[in-house]
Structure formats: structure tokens, C-alpha cells
Write a structure and sequence with these properties.
With 274 residues, this protein is mostly helical. The chain has a single domain, classed as MetI-like fold. The longest helix has 37 residues.
């Protein structure tokens, strides 16, 4: 029976708390996050408002729940874009190693790497305007070369193995070999990297919302909650503390999960632990 690493368990618990809050927010929140109650502004944490209220009288705990839904949804879709486009590109490049096509794909990845997701978001929003959809596209584009590099590097180490050479001698095409033999053997790398990119996606969404390029009002976002609180932090520090801790704990949980999954899925680490 596999002993799960403590990092995986603890990280899973941390992330599950916010995931559960995000799922519950679809059907219930303590207060409506779109209703403004100016008479209840700047309330401190209490039994009526667990995390207090903001400068518009909105319940911060409810906004944290809905903000979790927003951040997780944006990160999931953005990572999905990176996997759906980056992995095939990486496998295609590895299958054509030494060919001009390999160089073309990887130089294209280098070009995308030269522009961080924030710069890409600025370029996109300059044309189409700020929105959650454009934030997803910006983060997703940045994830494509990440997964392309991971999948190419893992695939290259497998293409030289004897059973791959046997499959080529048997007449299997590169596409079939990549799908049947290469992809299952690099799945562990992709899972761990996917967890890491998921946490980076949440950070990127918060950063884009902080500068006004992500999710737009009235939908709550952790990044915009921080931006709104920065001018009032001296009189109401709880406005920044709770969304800040939400981002920190969620990213910490995902990073711990990534470390735990690496310990389980990486055979080299398993051998050293025996």
C-alpha cells in the first residue's frame, strides 16, 4: 500500500478547503456579493460577517468564496489550453528531433517565453478590452511553451529506448508511437507540471485582476480585492489580509500537492526513499 507523502496530504487539505468553498458558492453564500450596503461598510470580523465587510458593505467571506470560484476556473481553463496545445507540439517536435520542424517549434516557444503573461494580457486587452476570457487566453498562451518543453524533453529520453526502436521497426508511425508509448510514460511529468502551472495560473489571475486586466466588476476577484484595499489598509487592514491569505494558502496547497505527486510519480525519488 502506497504511503502518501505528508506534503500531498496537507496540500490537498488546503486546496480542498478553497475548492469546496468555490463549489458551495454556486448554490449559497452568506450574503449576496452584488448588493451594496453602505451603512455596513468597514465592519470588523464578527458572527454576522466572519471576515468583516469592505468599503461597499459587502461580506468579505462571501467574496472570498466567489473569488475562489473565479480564480480556480480561470486557472483550470488556462492550464487546459496549455496542455491541449503544448503537449502535442512537444511530442511533434520530439518525433522530428534534428529536423527543421523541431527547431521551428522550439524557437516559437522561445518567442512566447520572451513575453510574460502580464505583457500578453496587456497586448490582448489593448485590442479586445479587459475581461476574464482575455485573462484566460493570456495565461493559456504562456502555458503552451511550458508544456511543450516538458513533453519534448521527456519524449526525447524515451525515443532512444529499445522498445521504441522495436515499434518503429514494426512499422508504427511517429504519431501512433507518441500516443501509445511516449505520452503514457511522460504523464507523471505532465501531472506534476500541471499542478505547478495551476498554482501559477491562480497567481497570474490575481495579478491581472490587480491591475484591472482580469475579471471585471461586479464579479469578485482576489486580485481586485487587494487592489481595492490598498488605499484603505491603514483603517481596515482586514480588507487586504483575507484575500491575501486566500491566495497564499491556495498556492501553497497546490505547490505542496505538486511536491507530493512528484515524490509518488517519480521513480528515481521512489528508489532513493527505499
Amino acid at each position: 500500500m502506497t504511503n502518501f507523502p505528508r506534503t500531498l496530504i496537507f496540500g490537498g487539505i488546503l486546496f480542498s478547503i478553497f475548492l469546496l468553498g468555490a463549489l458551495i458558492s454556486f448554490v449559497w453564500t452568506p450574503a449576496d456579493v452584488e448588493i451594496l450596503q453602505i451603512t455596513a461598510r468597514f465592519k470588523l470580523p464578527s458572527t454576522a460577517h466572519w471576515f468583516g465587510t469592505d468599503h461597499f458593505g459587502r461580506d468579505i467571506f462571501s467574496m472570498i468564496m466567489v473569488g475562489a470560484r473565479t480564480s480556480i476556473a480561470v486557472a483550470v481553463v488556462a492550464v487546459g489550453i496549455g496542455i491541449a496545445l503544448g503537449v502535442p507540439l512537444g511530442l511533434w517536435a520530439a518525433a522530428n528531433h534534428g529536423h527543421w520542424l523541431d527547431d521551428f517549434i522550439m524557437r516559437g516557444n522561445d518567442l512566447v517565453f520572451a513575453f510574460p503573461s502580464l505583457i500578453i494580457a496587456i497586448l490582448i486587452t489593448a485590442v479586445f478590452g479587459p475581461s476574464a476570457f482575455n485573462a484566460i487566453i493570456a495565461i493559456g498562451i504562456f502555458n503552451i511553451p511550458v508544456f511543450a518543453r516538458i513533453s519534448r524533453g521527456g519524449a526525447l529520453s524515451i525515443w532512444t529506448l529499445d522498445y521504441i526502436l522495436s515499434a518503429r521497426v514494426a512499422g508504427k508511425r511517429a504519431f501512433r508511437i507518441s500516443a501509445e508509448h511516449i505520452l503514457p510514460n511522460i504523464a507523471n511529468l505532465l501531472i506534476v507540471q500541471g499542478t505547478i502551472q495551476f498554482s501559477l495560473g491562480i497567481l497570474a489571475e490575481a495579478a491581472l485582476s490587480y491591475v484591472g486586466l482580469g475579471v471585471q466588476p461586479p464579479t469578485p476577484s482576489w486580485g481586485r480585492m487587494l487592489a481595492d484595499s490598498q488605499t484603505m489598509i491603514s483603517i481596515a487592514p482586514h480588507l487586504a489580509l483575507f484575500p491575501g491569505f486566500a491566495i497564499i494558502l491556495t498556492v501553497l496547497g497546490l505547490n505542496l500537492m505538486g511536491d507530493g505527486l512528484r515524490d509518488i510519480l517519480d521513480p528515481r525519488i521512489r528508489r532513493t526513499q527505499r
